[in-house]
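Note to self: user wants both folds in one dump. Writing first protein now.
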Amino acid sequence: MSMFIALLHSIVLAPDRRVIMEDLRALAEELGYREPRTLVSTGNLVFEADEMRPHELEVALEEGFEEKFGKHVDIIVRSDCTWMALCSTNPFRDGSGDQVIVRVMRLPVDPAKVEALKPLMAEGQRIAVVGGDLWIDFAGKQNQSKLLSALTTKRLGVGTMRNWNTVCGLAEMIM
């Protein structure tokens, strides 16, 4: 049995309806996963499952989610080991926990696409690719940044963003 983290790209089903974490935990149990737990109300799920590849879990969770909630949502799954490795690679540890963001990618982000983001950066902002994931330090300018609106699936591929505080909170849940 292994521990996994699933990150939902969006939990908005309609303009006035969001997935509540109780329903997300129930979905995980219906799929046969054990000890499902959530962190904050933004689609972070920790659970135990038999040895499976993360991609198999992504497919099962995405299909189960669509069946239960009537909407496709991209879901990124990482094993506990790969999550801890991600935690150890933060290139901006000197940044503020709510301003340092990682875009956790299903497939490694294309460096050329990251290069195309650089003209959108505001002064003091930093970006780096580590292990295929895109790290961004918004340096207190997240809401003012043109960069934020460019971090889309259409532009970068399937992925979802979490701030450093959430990354660390998920790490604590699997330790």
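First done. Writing the second protein, which came from a different request thread.
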Amino acid sequence: MQMVLHIPKNDPPARSALLAAAASAVVALCLDERVGPGGEWEERYLTWKHSRIRKVARRARGAQWLAAQEVDGVTVEFAGAQARALVPGPVGEVDPRIRRLQISGTELPVEEEIAIDPEFPVLWVDAELGMTVGKAAAQVGHASMLLAGALPVRQAYAWAGTGFRCTVAEADPGHWAELQRRVARGDAVAVRDAGFTEVAPGSTTVIAVP
């Protein structure tokens, strides 16, 4: 799955808002009726889902961002940040308008404080890993998918009604330890990375709390 993050040169979004938009866009696409039975995206989505699920985040601005809107997918805007999750497909068949976008190069600072809204899920990123924006976007996208799959149907439906709104924040080592205990109790879901880029194989990157 290709993900496109809108990062304008002169007025970039807050890192946490951009990651929240990315997480929401991914789960919105995964639960879109067009990937369901008889939907126009069903075959492409199921082929990806039944193989190795991977995500790649790319950055875009200006005309690049507008062009990305023409490629099949779902865009989410949150607190001034925008991200688009594209319908998955083979690596060799990535749309040329997306393939030319850079995967790395632009970083956004981590905010010192994030307002946590208790009405919505929180996706906690392990601060110790120091992941780039692109890597973190892919990881919170994994987390939103796992969380939706773990929720009771009624609760997932209610979350859909909010546009899959969530908060993304970084957890320091002390808080991370408590989050891991919540995962062990079954109160949260964890993303463990395969380790292809940036982090060691098996690293827990994000913990999602309903």
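Dump finished. Worth passing along: The first strand starts at residue 2 and ends at 6.
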